[in-house]
Amino acid sequence: MPGGSPEAYSQLEGMLVQIAAQTPSGPCVTWVGHGSAGHYVKMVHNGIEYAIMQLISEIYSVLKFGSLSNVEIAEIFEEWNEGELKSFLIEITAVVLRKKDEHSDHSLVDLILDKAKQKGTGMWTSQSAMDLNVPIPLIDTAVTMRFLSARKEERVQASSLYNIEHDSPSYSREKLIQLCKQSMLFGMLLSYGQGLDLLNQASANYKYEINISEVIRIWKGGCIIRSGLLDELQEVYTRNMSLKNILLSDNYVDVFTQTRKSVIELINYAMHHGVPVPCISSALNYFDAYRSAELSSNLIQAQRDYFGAHTYERKDMPGTFHSNWEEK
Amino acid sequence: MPGGSPEAYSQLEGMLVQIAAQTPSGPCVTWVGHGSAGHYVKMVHNGIEYAIMQLISEIYSVLKFGSLSNVEIAEIFEEWNEGELKSFLIEITAVVLRKKDEHSDHSLVDLILDKAKQKGTGMWTSQSAMDLNVPIPLIDTAVTMRFLSARKEERVQASSLYNIEHDSPSYSREKLIQLCKQSMLFGMLLSYGQGLDLLNQASANYKYEINISEVIRIWKGGCIIRSGLLDELQEVYTRNMSLKNILLSDNYVDVFTQTRKSVIELINYAMHHGVPVPCISSALNYFDAYRSAELSSNLIQAQRDYFGAHTYERKDMPGTFHSNWEEK
To answer: Which residues of B are marked as active site?
Structure first.
């Protein structure tokens, strides 16, 4: 086993489930870091899990709206699971969608109440990220959607109040599936990216000394977020231990640039038809904000200085400034 | 003054700023509720403030992308401030946009660094909402965007890696302004709605016994989120003290239904041109999810039962169930 004291291992209880798994990169166990690092890594793992599950559920709802049956959607997920989207969550979704109810000839998933529950780990990830000022909107959105799903009675009541007209666009089945696949890839990569960004910041803040590459390695087998995408991601972090965000790696520029177009088309389709895709939308907005050298947050700083004298910094000179905004 | 002990008033320190304000509905002071209710209400006030400020900054960035100058955008905000969007934040935004730098002939706002800071109250609102399982994605998104704005150096680096092609749609200036106005109204109403939903739940959970109508009344003057929209909102909550969500009030069905179309067109414009509109997108997705009798969260429950035996409920019979999903 790699270095690390027994005490450190004992802090890994949350990750014991991974210990048995073996991958071509070795057994899925490692010394994660000092103090509570093992627990923190497991918590962030679960946050990423929430985001990927919400993304899959959005893709499922779009395909369902596109008149595909559960078995047809299962076939699509099975096909995806043979390619770059190969992952435990895509794999089990196909199995879930094929499962028949034992009391009827319905798909079992169609009979399950659409209130998603949670044990709290996704929520803790979001709350901790806020404490550390790290933007992880995909995870936040997935957590919030679980809360919103629980408001079943209110949703039923609201559904009777609002009639949404469906209009264009209408895509061929092949195109819709392609848009879904590209959006899944875009969102899944950013789910990992946001989670790893948080781990980086938490490691620095709490002095965990987490080796991100090692964390990715142990996520490659035995755990819920394991996927083929982690192979390249581990290589990227092994080469550049100080990478701040997946979006700053040359490896991913092409894939994000190319899939972004499909994400836009998918969101356009979904919103015109009233199908909520909050995580996919959140992924696009995060991407577009992160790659914006200039955001409109200068206006927010000006407003804060206006009403609270919170001061602002300038682009053209150092220092901290306050203005009397009402003075002409 | 309305009822309430001196002890209760002493808990209102966070709201003292409002005490002097007078409105046609009376002085902006009230007994908010038991225990820490006053602080909680002030915190949620600030959460709503974050959301509205982020919405305004997104509208500003869309209009700026549409080639409008700061003075032209100021004129638009001034016009809006004469109508249903009349509000302190819209009003001061116009003043901010007209302010000239004292060292040059630039607009001062253009020289302000686009890193939005924060004192923590918006973040506490989001974290508390998560503890209470209340979905307030507009506030979460506004908080997260402040964090993301602070990553200036990373954003500059990412901007050199990603080239986004701009394509259709292209709208006339009049249409773009109209879409912005409708989107502002849609988002602003939901910002209040999500904040009040949180207050409702917090009041029940912490036994604050908050009178939501009274809270809205004292927000009508002297505070940062004061606006003309609060008049109708107060009436709505006065008539129906137990209203769970703004989207369940007959009063707002028409306005949400009508403005939603513009929100879609605005998001479509923004995403095709690479302008991030995370709060506006979040508002639309919240709306569409809230008014969905059926969400795809049944799939999430099935996945959770598959990998963690977390069980699920059924639509067609009471009880708690677990399945062996791999069994044919």
So the answer is: 42, 49
Distance CA B125, CA B128 (A): 5
Which residues in B lie closer than 8 A to residue A286 (C-beta atoms)?
A: 148, 278
Question: Residues of B with CB below 8 A from A139's CB?
Answer: none
Largest Cα separation within chain A, whole Å, is 75
Return the closest-CA partner of residue B194 out of B33, B28, B54: B54
Whether residue A257 lies within 8 A of chain B, CB to CB, comes out as: yes
pLDDT per residue of chain B (328 residues) written in tens, 0 to 9: 333 343 444 444 444 444 458 888 888 899 999 999 999 999 999 999 999 999 999 999 999 999 999 999 999 999 999 999 999 999 999 999 999 999 899 999 999 999 999 999 999 999 999 999 999 999 999 999 999 999 999 999 999 999 888 777 899 999 999 999 999 999 999 999 999 999 999 999 999 999 999 999 999 998 999 999 999 999 999 999 999 999 999 999 999 999 999 999 999 999 999 999 999 999 999 999 999 999 999 999 999 999 999 999 999 999 999 999 998 7
Contacts of A212 (CB under 8 A, 6+ apart): A196, A199, A200, A203, A237, A241, A243
Instruction: Please confirm, yes or no, whether A49 is among the known catalytic residues.
Output: yes
CA distance B311 to B237: 38
Which of B143, B164, B316 has the CB atom closest to A130's CB atom?
B143
